[in-house]
What we know:
Helix content: 55-70%
Order of helices and strands: HHHHHHHHHHHH
Radius of gyration: 35 Å
Distance between the termini: 109 Å
Largest sheet: none
Number of strands: 0
Amino acid sequence: MHVFRAGMTTWSVVNDDSREKQWQDHFPRSLPRYVLLVCLALVVVSLGVVLMPARPPVPAQPPFSEQARAAALAETVRLKDAGSRLGTAKQDGSKDGSAGGADGPSAGAGNAAIERTVTLLTTQAQALLAPGESPAVSAAAADSGRATPQAPAASPATPAPSVSGAPSAGASAAPSAAPSTAPLPSTAAGLVAALANSGNQRLADAAVADGGMARLLAAVGTAQLLQASALAAGTGTAAPPADVASPQLSGTCPSPSPTSQSDAGEPAAGQSDAGVPTTGQSAAASSLGGAVAAVVRTEAQAIYGYQVALPRLGGDAAKSAAKELARHDALLSGAESLSRLHCAAVPPREAGYSLGRSFVASPAAGLGRLEAAALPAYGDLVALSEGETRQWAIAGLLCAGERAVLWGADPGALPGLDPATLPSQPSQPAG
């Protein structure tokens, strides 16, 4: 048994050695096959990669300010087209005596107001075009209504304007391109309502947009609300509500840093004569302090103007002047509170201002010029502020535009914004 087992062991070792030799002899002959199989696999994989292109990356969502601009442009172009069609329909209807229609018999006489509306919206559409953007792109956006941006939620300390359609405190402002599926307004009353809704939305967007875009949106929204009222008066339709309530300003100047305390009483380099900025404050705070100071001076001059004009006016004009004088007193107090809130020195009130002989000769027109001159100061404050201060400035911009209209002045298509500062655009946006 021992011999047999040893023999079996010897045979097993010999068998394993022969198998190893066979594998060593077989592998070199099979190597080309393995290489060929690997090459074929690589070719198949590469063809699959080529035939299945990579998915394009998802484009990043534009910032809120760009979304708000696109929404404002789409809606403005849409309203311009509606006004153009409505004006043409009125002219055609007047030939066969059917101009009255649903808007009443005076709507046919509103062609001039409709034309002014179209002109205003055309100017605004040009201002809302991005540099290098084609007017045809804006028309396509208006037709498709694809711009429906979402805004970041406003902080609880940032109440939104209390206008129809505007978000309340703590709510999200969502710029919306209304031209999605809604038909174009076909009546003067419909155009008035659409203008007012657009103006309210632009002001709501301005509350949370970036500085320069906030001023542009506030200018567009203010002009659209003012034109909605003018169009309502010119066509005999109901005037839309356009009341933006000023927020109740709250807060105090934050405690100055040790650096600023050591520099107290010494104006910083580049400090304006209005006051404030100390070396402990940023350049942005310095600009904000200057904008608030400009509003303080503007309101103080307006109060002086109304005090001069009031004895020279009579009847309803005198009543309106007395009412607006009280409002300017409140605005001046609010602006001075903002100065203290932003750690800015309150500009001293001057004893008097130069108004010119034309003001005394025509005090009503002079008040209109004073109100129109206040618009850029409020526009600057909108651009340089945020939160409650910006809400206050937006309300002040709209109210100044309303007072300018009251006294016969034209606030223009972009109140508070100098059109000369805008980049040049094509002369006529596509409808």
